[in-house]
Specification:
- It is a single chain.
- The chain is an all-alpha fold and 272 residues long.
- The protein has one domain (20-270).
- It has helices at 3-11, 24-34, 38-42, 46-63, 76-107, 110-115, 121-149, 161-180, 189-202, 214-221, 224-237, 243-270, and strands at residues 65-67, 73-75.
- A two-stranded antiparallel ribbon has the order 1-2.
- A hairpin with a 5-residue loop joins strand 1 and strand 2.
- The protein is elongated, with a radius of gyration of 19 Å.
Length: 272
């Protein structure tokens, strides 16, 4: 199902100047643009794989068994892998919705040309966010295959990890593009990386949150990546509970809020 068909019923009330129902054009353009530079699409898959091999194999003997969601005992690589998958979905979505979108917005002037046609700012936002989602999903799918091949999936519920990773990527893609509309120069993009690195390190990627004092646990629990990690770890071991809906709702809010803000900002920057 295309983006436009999926969104059409919800967006019929949007003025045609804002949404023409042709966001798929942006996805098709990105597909053609990257068909000769496929290595750029798959390169982000290797970073979490290197972490898994280096830390999972190196620390497995030192750490031993780790208690996962629902009290399930896990090897350290099985504990680590879902967190790396969540970070892979985040990085793939954020990179495309920030660096690449910024270049097309400020230097390439692609969106100005697009908005001179019948397409509107919501078409641009939906198209670019969808492409960033696909990129994050590509990283996630590749890493999930590695997890399965190494025997790090601990429950049949692991089949739901990829759809959940797509939800994570969608939330980060929408917020990433919204943030990019406020970026003034490439130097400002360093702030995005400055935010992502500590979130990756302190969101429970490598250890449980119980190592933190309670006040710091509360701060970390507000971070989006921590919700993604908790969601994927629970699915990996089959620890299904109503709390998982809260994690999904978190990313749904990110996606809707980011899409709405991106649309408003593009309209203000390029049409007024």
């Amino acid at each position: 199902m295309s983006v436009d068909v999926a969104a059409g019923g919800l967006l019929r009330v949007v003025p045609s100047a804002v949404y023409a129902g042709r966001s798929r054009v942006l996805v098709e353009r990105a597909t053609h643009a990257y068909r000769h530079t496929w290595l750029a699409l798959v390169s982000g898959f290797f970073e979490p794989l290197f972490y898994l091999v280096a830390l999972g194999a190196g620390l497995r003997g030192l750490v031993g068994t780790v208690t996962g969601p629902g009290g399930t005992p896990l090897s350290y690589p099985a504990f680590l892998a879902p967190a790396l998958l969540a970070s892979s979905a985040m990085n793939g979505a954020v990179f495309d919705s920030t660096v690449n979108v910024f270049f097309r917005l400020k230097y390439n002037k692609l969106y100005e040309a697009i908005l001179a046609t019948s397409l509107g700012p919501l078409d641009v936002a939906l198209g670019e966010i969808t492409w960033a989602l696909l990129r994050g999903g590509l990283y996630s799918a590749g890493f999930l295959v590695v997890m399965a091949g190494l025997g790090l999936t601990a429950s049949p519920w692991a089949v739901a990890i990829l759809p959940a990773a797509l939800v994570i990527a969608l939330g980060f893609a929408a917020v990433g593009m919204a943030v990019t509309t406020f970026v003034r120069g490439f130097q400002d993009l360093d702030i995005v990386q400055f935010a992502l690195l500590p979130m990756f390190l302190f969101s429970g990627s490598f250890y449980g949150l119980d190592v933190y004092p309670r006040w710091l646990q509360f701060v970390v629990e507000c971070l989006p990546l921590q919700h993604g990690i908790a969601l994927l770890r629970a699915l990996n071991v089959g620890a299904i509970s109503p709390g998982l809906l809260g994690h999904l709702a978190y990313f749904a809010v990110m996606a809707v809020g980011g899409l709405a803000l991106t649309t408003v900002r593009l309209e203000r920057l390029l049409l007024r």
